[in-house]
Every structure is written in C-alpha cells, then in structure tokens.
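During the no-cost extension, the postdoctoral fellow (Dr. R.K.) reprocessed legacy sequence entries with the updated structure-token encoder. One reprocessed record is reproduced below for audit purposes.
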Amino acid sequence: MPLPPGSPPPLPQNTDNPSDSESREDLKKTKGEKSPRNSHHNQRNSKLGQENSQKSTALRFGELVIIGYNGMLPNGDKGRRRSKFTLFKRVAANGVKPVKHHIVKNPQQSELIQNSHQHSVSYTLSRSQAVIVQYDHDPDTDMFQIGRSSEDPIDFVVMDTVPGDQRGDSLVAQQSTISRFACRIIVDRNFPHTARIFAAGFDVAKNIFLGEKATKWYSEGEIDGLTTNGVLIMHPVNGFSKDSKPSIWREVSVDGGIYALRESRSTPQKSSLVKTETNVLQDGTLIDLCGATLIWRSATGLLSAPSRRELEHKIEEINAGRPQCPVGLNTLVLPSKNTISESEKTPYVYLNCGHVHGQHSWGKGEDTNACTCPMCRKTGPFVKLQLGQETSLYVDNEVPTHCFCPCGHMASEKTIKYWSLIPIPHGCLGFRAACPFCATPLTGDPGWVKLIFQDHVD
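Re-encoded structure tokens follow.
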C-alpha cells in the first residue's frame, strides 16, 4: 500500500498533560482521592479471581484481538495485558448513559466533578466556561474500557505494536501515542447484544476531560469532541467472511458520532459527519488506537471461525501428502505451532515463486535476499514458513495454501488476499498493508505468494 509523498509529521505523544486536557491529578486532589495503584491493587486481584470463575458460565459478547501477535504477546499474556480480550456479560451491569448537560464556570469546583461516584464528560470551552455531560448508571448495558493505562478502570491494556521484523531492534522503543484511556465499548445486555464504540474512556475519578485546545464543538444544545490522536474504525463490506472487502476508515467521537478522517490524526479541525454510518461494531470491524490496531469478532462470527484444532487438522492434511525438499529429497513437516527450533524437516519458501524447500545452501550468495530457486531459477528472499495460528483472523475455514511476503506467515487463500488489501493506519498520515499475524509491512505486489509443494511423490 503506497504511502503519501513526503515524510509524515510526528504524532503527538499521549502524556495527558494540561495542554490538551485538564490535569487529572489536580482534579483528583480536589476530590481528595489517593493514587489507585496501591488502593485498588489488592481489590483488583481479588476481583480477577471471582471474575475468572464467573466467566466459565457467562455469556460471551465477542472478543477484541490485537493485530500482529498471532495468539500471544512476545513475553506472554499476563493479566489485563494480552493479545486478545474476551467480553463477557457482567454479573452486574456497569454501563452508563448521558442524561443531562450542565454549563458551569469552574468545572473543577463542580459537584459533578467532585462526586467520585458520578460519571461525567467535561468539555472546556474557555477558562471561564465548560459544558459537563452527566452520565448515569444504565442497568441495560455493560461497559468495557481499553487503553494504555494499567489503572483499575481499564479492562484491556493495549501497548504500541512493534512489527515482527523490528522486535529485536533496541532502537524501536519510543513514547506511546496510544491514549491512557483510549476508548470504551458499551454492549447491550439483552439480545441481540449490540456493541457500540466511543472515543475516550473514564479515568479513576469516573471523568473524561477535553481541555480548551481539544477538538470539540457545541451547537444547538449538543456537544461532542475528538481525542488527541483519534480512534478510527473500519467496517468491512459483506461482514467478516470469505466475501469480505475493505471499506473506508472513519473516526469515532466521544459521543459516538462517525466522521470522515481529519487531514492528519492530530489536526484540530473535525471533518464532516457521516450520517449513513454508525458506531455499532460489526463482526470484523477494525479499531485503530494510533499505535495498535484491533479487530472485533462478535460471538456469532466466532462460531464460524476455525478452531485451533481444526487449523491443526488442515496442517495434518498437508503433512499427509509428505511434501519433499526438491534438493535434499527429505520429507518436510509443517509445524502446527510456531517453533524456534530448526531441523532438516523445517519448510522454507522462495517468496518470488512460492516453491517450498528445506533449509539448504544451494543457490545462496552473500545476500540472503537474493537466493536462486533451483526449480524455476527465480531469485529472491528465502524465508522460513510460519503458521498463522490466531484463528480469529481467518475469514474462512480452508487449508493454508498461501503466505505473506516478507514474513512467511501461512493462511488460507481468501484470508491472505483479504488482509493484503487492508490499509492499516501507520503514523500520522500513512496507511500500509501488513501481515495480521506479525504486523510486518507487506512487500512486493501483491504482497503474498501461493505455496508450491512437491508432495504426493510416493
């Protein structure tokens, strides 16, 4: 996917400073609250034990999967920081809904802000005026919050995704552009369990603040706004299926409105309202938090996704054909799980032609990206095949027959072709196609290759 000409400007770092939002620390002091890190830590741990026992019987609404981790974070899934998050119906509803607008002169002294049991969204219009939207408990919805913060209100902790080809590079570490309280999802507790996404999440004091410099608008008694780097969504055409096609990225507002993209992620002016689209999550909706991209899989959609065991069975079908290395004439074995270990049975692929071989030295020069295939004499990269094992990313339940370039992750033909057409947001202005299993940008055109096995030779 080509990038716009020129280098994109750097993205603002989400440090939650008073330049684009009111200081949360000052407002916490106004309420006389203590830091949640210690006061909530033990309570959070006890809750996790209770929640784990309840989830076994709870209704599943759907799940969020971070693009680029293939089933597990590099250092393992731990607590609320993991590669995927399943949304279960809560034992008790915790959703909220807007009920009333209040115009105040000093939001820090407002009773709504000082009340630690009251959810609110504060829009600062000037130093002497703000609009506070009061949110009350909604017994018919459950709320789930996503963000970079590890504080108690965040259900799913998401950090910036480092592409697989850069994870060994010590220079990639940088300050995050993901908001500490990035977004919230509200799900109806009653059938059909509609899920809606909203920009920004409530902090430990149950508040959302849009400062004087934040993008917001107030007209005809309605107020709304956008977060610093924005929350983008893309609903796929034809749902998430073998017929899926990419659509257009949109931005979702704090109140759930859908807008055309701004000129850049942090441009202070909003774009036009898209009245024909909504913030209702569909199976396969992509959510970009400016640093990490997630996919929403509905409970219904997951029923048609392949299970891990079904995917392993597909690999067994390929191995049953006893594919051979044309050079070493040894049998190759596709692993059902990605492993670091190497053996003569480990399959490799020439990315310019798709011929699958074992590891060998024939046709290799000093440049590892210029290996000559002994079958067709095409020269190009020679990489290890890896299984795309995060089944939530598959659009169908077919045999893995293709792989992405340059990473070598295998998946079904339609899965490979669908993701190769998806423009994943990158930086402030750019979009690029990437492997959904490792987030490595695709190379070449079309960014994938069909695998050619020498099998059934007995």
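The longest strand covers residues 95-104. The chain has seven helices and 28 strands. The remaining legacy entries will be reprocessed before the final report is submitted.
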